[in-house]
Design brief:
heterodimer; A: about 300 residues; mainly alpha; 14 helices; elongated; B: about 325 residues; alpha/beta; Rossmann fold; Alpha-Beta Plaits; six-stranded mixed beta sheet; 11 helices
């Protein structure tokens, strides 16, 4: 049995309409129903910034609605940073001395805030990988919605989740003696900078989530780089106490800059250029990785 | 601007090609689906069915060829195409953490329906897909059949002109499968054009008014189920012999009785032979006599109408549900 190159010629090939008696043309009563069910005259699907915002919000609510229904997820997401606050304050608190800070807690806690908020961005890679694996992303890709809204909705909802985690952490930090030494506005700016930085990183996580083939891979790939990223920094110790070869790396780590900016603002110390540099990193990372992720999201598809 | 007239062709493809590296998944597929029809894309795993659907639904960019939905070019105006198609993929793409109502409303909003329409449509579909009682429960607890129903309902929320169903019953238990068939048959009476892929011959036979057989990325035959059966000719004689080593002798003995050759079932143990015959039942005594004269022990002789399985076997040399390595 050979497989011929030419399809066997059947009585009526797909030449539709050529022969209404034997061809597969729709039956009259069916054709009548076409008009009211499958409307052929459709408005052009609207595009433009307003629709990007609207579609993004629909996607964000998909993730946010779930939060109050599964409080345990949020609780577990909060336990880790709370644990870090307690462990570092009580285990290392007495042993570590940092030049320029009398009280290690005031130095440490902004660092833990920064680290936890950055860790929170890992939700993004796992969530996107999950949607990919379940075929949900394909469903969204087949809709006339804005292409970027899927990723914007995801990153925004993860930001909201991060804010909730941050508030819980803040309460615990105050309970162990942490105080805003500067003005309230400075504390707000510090928090906003950390959140902006975390939002930028969630775009890196989005790219990771779109690039890996499984949720498990997203979980490891999303987390693994954060350990050197957040520990080789000024979050827990002053970089001057590190080996010579490591110190410049730690000092130039954008995470160090973000931590220093937040720490200075929480403690009412002069922040220098760190705030602006942090903002620059946040905007830059967001711009580059949002572009890459959105391109990746649509790369295989038509436009 | 190409404003499509109300054309009779809902889906049209010309010479679609898609390569993944060296592997040509779709190798020049031509397709024409008239409005309101249910067409079945039938082929084994790896034949290129899903890739074809992904090309038609804007999820993949073709390497060559073109396709239109309602006369709108898939590559040139993907967003307009997306507004008039519904896609149900191989795995139920539902948001497990939300309820059925929320799932429907969300997809409705992303199809840009207005709030009232979303609510009405969601209500209608919940009713029709028998999900009213479960409507406000989180999907996580749903059975496979319920998920599939919700999945299809989500694809229908914007009253698509063309619905793509990629292996709609894969992974369903027999009862849910039957229910799904009934549901798909009802779609037809709505006037929705349906293109479904399947590797089940009985499914294509039952649902599709026209079947497009696809293998190694090419359309190798198309027609109604009856046309396909006629194509391979008459009835089928199927013989089971006692010992595989006698197959050669059995084939020699049967050849004079049959039209064309006698085939050994490639997936069996070499004891099952099939052949196309035209003489109907009268062949049976002759076949038994011929085999007996040749000294072949016969276990079973049967004459039957050809199934789509026979069609597939004749056209491709393998069974439709053969997930073998030769698919590439």
């Amino acid at each position: 049995m050979s497989l011929d190159d030419e399809p066997p010629a059947f009585g009526h090939r797909a030449a539709v309409g050529a022969d209404p008696t034997s061809g597969p043309s729709p039956a009259p009563e069916r054709a009548a129903a076409v008009a009211d069910v499958a409307t052929l005259d459709r408005p052009e699907p609207a595009t433009g910034p307003i629709w990007v915002v609207r579609d993004s919000w629909v996607e964000a609510t998909r993730h946010l609605r779930v939060v109050p229904r599964n409080p345990e997820l949020l609780i577990f997401a909060t336990i880790q940073p709370v644990m870090f606050v307690l462990l570092f304050v009580y285990v290392f608190g007495g042993a570590i001395e940092v030049p320029g800070f009398e009280n290690y807690d005031q130095f440490l806690i902004p660092g833990i805030f920064a680290q936890s908020i950055v860790f929170g961005s890992a939700f993004t890679s796992v969530g996107i990988a999950e949607d990919m694996q379940k075929g949900y992303i394909d469903r969204l890709r087949s809709l006339p919605m804005s292409r970027s809204a899927v990723l914007i909705g995801r990153t925004v909802s993860d930001l909201v989740r991060n804010i909730i985690t941050f508030l819980v952490m803040l309460v615990v930090a105050f309970a162990v003696g942490f105080r805003f030494e500067g003005t309230f506005v400075e504390a707000l700016v510090a928090t906003a900078l950390l959140l902006a930085f975390s939002y930028a990183l969630s775009w890196i996580q989005a790219l990771i989530g779109l690039s890996v083939s499984s949720v498990e891979a997203a979980n490891s790939a999303g987390f693994i780089w954060m350990f050197p990223f957040t520990f080789v920094s000024s979050a827990f110790v002053d970089p001057s106490q590190m080996p010579d070869w490591l110190e410049p790396i730690a000092r130039n780590n954008p995470f160090t800059v973000a931590t220093n900016a937040a720490r200075a603002l929480y403690n009412g110390l002069p922040v220098g250029t760190d705030a602006m540099v942090t903002l620059g990193w946040s905007v830059g990372i967001t711009a580059v990785f949002a572009a890459l992720s959105i391109r990746k999201f649509g790369s295989s598809t038509v436009a | 601007m190409s404003t499509p007239s109300i054309t009779d062709i809902a889906v049209e493809a010309h010479g679609l090609v898609k390569r993944f590296g060296d592997n040509v998944a779709v190798d020049g597929v031509d397709l024409q689906v008239p409005r309101g029809a249910i067409y079945g894309l039938l082929g084994p795993n790896g034949a290129g069915k899903t890739t074809t659907v992904r090309l038609l639904t804007t999820l993949l960019r073709p390497d060559a060829g073109s396709a239109t939905i309602d006369g709108i070019d898939v590559a040139r105006e993907p967003t307009r195409v997306r507004a008039r198609i519904g896609l149900t993929g191989q795995y139920a793409a539902v948001e497990e953490r939300l309820t059925a109502t929320e799932n429907l409303q969300m997809i409705g909003r992303l199809y840009r329906l207005d709030a009232t329409e979303v609510r009405t449509r969601a209500g209608e579909l919940l009713e029709r897909f028998d999900l009213v009682d479960a409507a406000d429960r989180v999907v996580k607890g749903y059975s496979g059949g319920m998920r599939r129903r919700l999945d299809i309902a989500m694809s229908l929320i914007a009253r698509p002109s063309v619905l793509f169903l990629d292996e709609p019953t894969t992974g369903l238990d027999p009862r849910s499968r039957l229910a799904m068939w009934e549901l798909i048959e009802e779609l037809e009476t709505d006037g929705t054009t349906v293109l479904l892929t399947t590797q089940y011959l009985d499914e294509a036979d039952r649902l599709a008014e026209r079947i497009v057989v696809i293998d190694t990325g090419r359309v190798i035959a198309q027609g109604s189920s009856d046309e396909l059966k006629d194509q391979i000719g008459g009835d089928r004689l199927s013989v089971t012999i006692a010992r595989a080593e006698n197959a050669g002798r059995a084939i020699e003995a049967l050849r004079p009785l049959c039209r064309g050759g006698v085939d050994v079932d490639p997936v069996g143990d070499g004891r099952h032979l099939t052949a196309s015959i035209s003489a109907g039942d009268r062949v049976v005594p002759s076949a038994i006599r011929a085999l007996d004269d040749a000294g072949v022990d016969v276990l079973d002789v049967e004459v039957r109408r050809p199934t789509l399985d026979d069609v597939f076997l004749t056209l491709t040399g393998k069974r439709a549900d053969d997930n073998g390595e030769e698919a590439a």
